[in-house]
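Hi support team,

I submitted a single chain yesterday and got back a structure, but I'm not sure I'm reading the token output correctly. Could someone confirm the output below corresponds to the sequence I sent? I've pasted both exactly as they appear in my results page.

Thanks,
R.
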Amino acid sequence: MNPAYRHARFRAELPHGGLPESFCIVTAYNPEGRTIPDKENEERTRKLGQQLVKLGYDHFPVTGYDAQSPHEEAGFGIVCELEAAYSMGNAFLQEAIFHIHRGQVSLIACGKTMTQEPLQDWAAMAEPPSQHPHFHFRGPFKLLKNPATAFLCSTQCPGDKILEAYDWARRQCDTGGTVISGFHTPVEKDVLAILARRGANIIWVPARALPKHIPMDLQPAFDEGRLAILSPFSPGQHSRPTRASCAARNLFVVGQAHSRYIPHIAAGSSLRDLPIDNNP
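Hi R., thanks for writing in. Yes, this is the structure output for that exact sequence:
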């Protein structure tokens, strides 16, 4: 294997500013390490892109290059299992691919036997702005394109406002709406249960780094492509929610949303510190 792989750098067009929790980088350039004409490499890249579309894999452009030379290779960041990316690398006669999981880059040698070599953090190997993504996420890209409504509610909430929130949640389900929230307070959790059960699109933003496992009650929504999990915190940050991380999370939720619905803000609630007016 060419030792330049160990010193690779990446230029990426991250999907909507977020870095997937786990993805692979595959290129179709220069099969078996042989330098071929640019037009042939471009055609091979086009065929790889077509295959990704056919297979239904979320993907985004990534160019790998050697900082010590003008050589670079266009490819794709692909959200798929490592084994699937390894098969693609072999099919396109590559010497190696890269695997990124929770910000750690590993070099994967192609061939008859898959070997894995840890390299550096993504931040050390990527160019700005992909070097420091706005958030980390798990789930389908398509939900990040949807105009989402931020849902926030204080822990203490009057009964009539709770019922109003439940009715609002059911309407989101009926209209195919997308709701973004931390789903942390009791009312927010109840609304999450309605959204998950009745078919709405959900963007969950926990006040900590991405959880390693999807809660059982949310797994069906995830499997149906209706759930994305976002975290403004890097892997290793905030293993559990704190008052400060909740405040930062709520600010992030409002910033990501196209509209908002806040049935109740209690006196003394930290929600009053957000840069928003009351509901429009």
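A quick pointer for reading it: The longest helix spans residues 38-55. Let us know if anything else looks off.

Best,
Support desk
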